[in-house]
Amino acid sequence: MLYVIICFLWASIWLYLLLGGADFGAGILELFTSKGNRDKTRDTMYQAIGPVWEANHMWLIIAIVILFVGFPVIYSTMSVYLHIPLTVMLLGIIARGTAFAFRHYDAVVDDMQVLYNRIFTWSSLITPLFLGIIAGSTVSSTINPDANNFLDAYVFSWLSFFSVAVGLFTVAICAFLAAIYLIGETNNDTDKKRFISKARIANIAAVIFGGMVFTAAWKEGIPLVDWIFGNAVGIAAITAASLSLVLLWYLLLKGKTKVLRILAGFQVTMILITTTFKHFPNIVILKGGGHLSLMEHHGHDKTLQALGMALLLGSLFILPALFYLIYSFQKKTAAGTDHHH
Amino acid sequence: MNDFLAARSQMALSLGFHIVFSCIGMVMPFFMAVAHYYWLKTGNDVYKNVTKAWSKGVAIFFATGAVSGTVLSFELGLLWPNFMKHAGPIFGMPFSLEGTAFFIEAIALGFFLYGWGRFNKWFHWFTGVIVGVSGLVSGILVVAANAWMNSPAGFDYINGEYVNIDPIKAMFNDAWFSQALHMCLAAFAATGFAVAGVHALMIVRKSHVQFHTKAFRIAAIFAAVAAILQPLSGDISAKDVAKRQPAKLAAMEAHFHTGKKVPLIIGGIPDESTQTVKYAMELPGLLSFMIAEDFNAEVKGLDSIPKEDHPPVAITHYAFQVMVGMGMIMMLAGVLYLIGLWRKKRWLESNWLLRFFVICTPLGFIAVEAGWTVTEVGRQPWIIHGIMRTADAVTPMPGINYSFYLFTAVYMSLAVIVTFMLYRQIKMVGKLYDITPASHLTTH
Ligand code: HDD
Ligand code: HEM
Ligand code: HEM
Fold first, then answer.
1. Domain of life here (chain B) (predicted)?
2. Are the C-beta atoms of B293 and B193 separated by less than 8 Å?
């Protein structure tokens, strides 16, 4: 059952990165869109993600619930030492979620929209930035349970070159996913071109920030290179990702949307695999070499049994419904039925 | 403000904020389903407009409820890491099931909000019902988790270790049923009166009377039935509390001295230092009767409980009085309305009844907040009743007061914006729904 639960944990992080990531990315793209085109970007985005919007963010909650029920020590350690970035991320989630709803459901369209949009776009950037920082700090040996002053315990636990680089990388990935996704959601050529060029820029940014992650890892003594290139899975995944990148650029020229989506999703999946495979099951690496391991720091057997059953049972209900939701709206948008305002 | 107090206040603030949205998220889908049903059956467009107007409001509330709930699931760890480290695996069962319920709710909401004119109409209607049912289920599940904190079960506590854990037993603890029942009714009563009150106001002002009358009636019937059942369920809760948390009951009733033939105290100012209650109205023997159905039964007072285990008496007592007081007023409104419905049709058009409902608009939510204050403050100093103290659970991180100020500012602004948007929504009713023909409304 432990393995079932770990699979669910991994899958919910993965899906959150893909679906939630594309969702954040749409806001980031809007932030970096020239004023004239913003309305169009917004409309495309709303049509594309509106119906599944709420569901995308459930994956984060599932991951958190799995952590606090199944792996309470890991959850509470992260909550204590990463309190500050978690709080910032939460504020980002609040701001983003409410601004998204407000701007579409406000009965009057006036100056308030400017405020909602500004809040929405900025929080779309900040939230994944801090998610990345949190992810970075879990593996960068900066969490220090023996620290005896505020800065070491609660600030330098997450504020490092490496973590910030991971944060920026995450932002670029989100923007990339969104741009690729949105290419397939527009019906006219100029918009398609716009999203294609955005996908390129985001991709270049991701490569630059990726380089920054490696540099930071090297400077701060994090064996990232070893995690990725020190084992067959890592090498295979990173090679696959690089090869598919070439293919992706080629297809971008052609504008083949379905394949593009699959490729982009594939790349992000590969990146997540390489970065999690080598140090599995140690999901938090502490200062001084200590680890918090999924295989050791888990709850009691009965708890895991119950949690696993709940997850399996839940997916029996959820997955078909979710697929049907995505399927029906894909079909209808493709047919170009009604338009929201 | 010290860190411990700040953490408690931040928790209370976040929960107090979330509960408003979750009540609405649990109940409004049912109201919409009724209006929607009438529309599908009768083809009367006013019902369609009511459904659509409500669904816009619900979308706003739902999003706010969802983000504030997400915040809560992190806050449990951010503020009470030591509690979660031990309690997580024990009381986590309802949370893991709740994940499913939320997910289904979110999916069904996607279908419902974006599905106008896209699906078979009864399928579309059904997705709205699913939103309501899964919301209600998730509410019941979270309350079961809270009930576990009041009546811990499903583990043995031996030498400071939590052993023999059984998450299913933990979920079905002694308090879950009475709390869940009371909470569900409270959600219907609070949301019902709030919605009915707003529509009543518009009727009194003679604005779009047809629209508001239909909306009012749906909300008012739910509200009235729930408000009449509420005191009955409250009685079950009180008997239950007397059994498992005598300290909480004593604080609720400001009952300091153990004794027989204990009076029920109404109002009054409890003074913990002198252990007396000033200016209270006493109904002889009634508390004994309510707890044990015997006017002479003994009821434990605070003197039978060690001083360090006393909850704050005054807050708990006042909060309890407020809840019961509001409950009585709402019950009266409910009874009058139902009499009007069955016997005295002309009451329904009369201004005094509508005005009464206008006054009742906020009462349900005041009662909900007060009721949770009773439950949570009355549990102090324990976070897990009799097992772990709240003070031992708090995060070691200093500076929580800043976090509290920040969240206060955020929640305040959100409350202001949501209120403002709701106000606009209501003002726009005429433009959006009443006058324009239905063909204009196919989008939202
Ligand atoms: C519309 C809201 C509302 C109304 C009218 C009432 N209540 Fe209530 N009450 C709640 C809303 C509420 C609540 C907010 O939902 C609580 C908090 C925890 C819970 O389970 O329900 C609660 C808790 C609560 C508790 C504590 C339960 C516990 O700690 O386990 C008791 C003893 C009562 N109530 C009793 C009553 C009585 C005797 C009422 C008579 C009129 C009453 N309530 C009306
Ligand atoms: C939504 C309705 C709820 C409201 C309005 C509410 C209110 C409060 C209040 C006022 C406090 C502070 C008590 C004090 O420190 O004096 C508190 C504390 C707390 N509540 Fe609740 N509560 C609610 C539901 C829940 C639920 C469902 C849970 C858990 C499953 C929960 C968990 C906690 C925890 C962990 C604390 C902090 C520890 C403590 O003070 O005992 N609450 N809540
Ligand atoms: C008595 C207390 C509570 C009740 C009745 C309640 C009920 C609900 C309901 C009905 C929703 C759906 C959102 C909506 O319709 O607006 C919701 C959302 C949520 N609640 Fe609560 N809740 C309570 C307390 C809590 C607590 C203590 C937590 C966390 C520990 C929590 C976590 C969540 C989460 C994560 C969501 C978002 C789910 C989504 O995206 O739909 N809730 N809650």
1. Bacteria
2. no
Token code pair at residue B284: 């002889």
A291-293 and A282-285 beta bridge pairing? antiparallel
Q: In whole angstroms, what is the distance from residue A317 CA to residue A334 CA?
A: 26
Query: Cα dihedral angle (B351, B352, B354, B356), rounded to 10 degrees?
Result: 160
Q: List beta partners, residue B163.
A: B156
DSSP, residue by residue, B97-146 = HHHHHHHHHHHHHHHHHH-TTTS-HHHHHHHHHHHHHHHHHHHHHHHHHH
- Indicate the burial class of B206 (C-beta count within 10 angstroms; 0-12, 13-18, 19 or more): exposed
B290/B276 Cα distance (integer angstroms): 21
Report the residue among B1, B11, B83, B179 best suited for mutation to probe ligand 2: largest number of ligand atoms under 8 A from its CB.
Answer: B11
Q: Following CA atoms A68, A72, A77, A83 in sequence, which dihedral angle do they give, to the nearest 10 degrees?
A: 20
Closest alpha carbon to B50 in B202, B160, B171: B202
Closest C-alpha among A187, A197, A56, A174 to residue A121: A174
Which H/E stretch holds residue A291? Answer: strand A291-293
Cα–Cα distance between B159 and B22 in angstroms, integer? 39
Contact A306 B167 (CB under 8 A): yes
**The whole model's pTM is what?**
0.88
pLDDT confidence band for A256 (50 / 70 / 90): low
Nearest to A210 by CA among A167, A264, A269, A151: A167
Distance CA B183, CA B226 (A): 11
How far apart are alpha carbons B206 and B219 in whole angstroms? 19
Q: Find out whether the beta carbon of B373 lies less than 6 Å from any atom of ligand 2.
A: yes
ipTM: 0.85
Instruction: Report how far residue A340's alpha carbon sits from residue A327's, in angstroms, rounded to the nearest whole number.
Output: 19
Query: What would the pLDDT profile of B301-334 be if each residue is shown by its tens digit?
Result: 888 888 888 888 889 989 998 999 999 999 999 9
CA distance B272 to B256: 9
Q: Which atom of ligand 1 is nearest to the CA of B185?
A: 1
What distance in Å separates the CA atoms of residue A288 and residue A267, rounded to the nearest whole number?
33
d(CA B232, CA A332): 49
Binary contact (B63, A50; C-beta < 8 A): no
